[in-house]
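W.,

You were right to be curious about this one. When I first looked at the sequence I had no strong expectations either way, so I just let the prediction run and decided to look at it fresh. Below is the sequence, 159 residues in total, followed by the output.
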Amino acid sequence: MMTANPQRYAHHQPCAGRAPQKNSVVFYALNSKFVDEKRAQQRSTQKVQEVVYYSLAIGHHLGVIDCLKASLTCPLADYQQWIRRLPPESEARRKLTGVERFGEINIDQSHIHLLALALREARDRMSEQQQAWSDRLIALLQQIASDPAMYLMVRRYDA
């Protein structure tokens, strides 16, 4: 049996920085992944452990942990105004309004083109602040295009 590297165990640590502001929307980007080796060893056979070590894509049920980093924060009311600049019946607007309906959405490689195109097309109808958010989101979408394992998690924080 392989011995686990104790430096790679998952430890609960206080959140760096400050808590998200109330009434805001935060875009989190996948920053890194690591394997909770202790958990994986306790719940898995030797063969499964080998798969975990060689492929982080196996999933959370085997102890793969995603580390997300806040990459864009918008006040909720301003976020709502921003996405209203997108065409009313567009798939991009439907996707981004999911934050209001569900409180959280994921953006992955399947969304990058429709979002980037819609943001660029709506640019003339946006304020300078909205254009800056669009530029930041497009830059994050370009990172996803370069690294298919990357994704964004967008979460709404209510008062």
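Here's what jumped out at me. The mean pLDDT is 78. And, maybe more interesting for your project: The longest strand covers residues 24-35.

Coffee later to discuss?

I.
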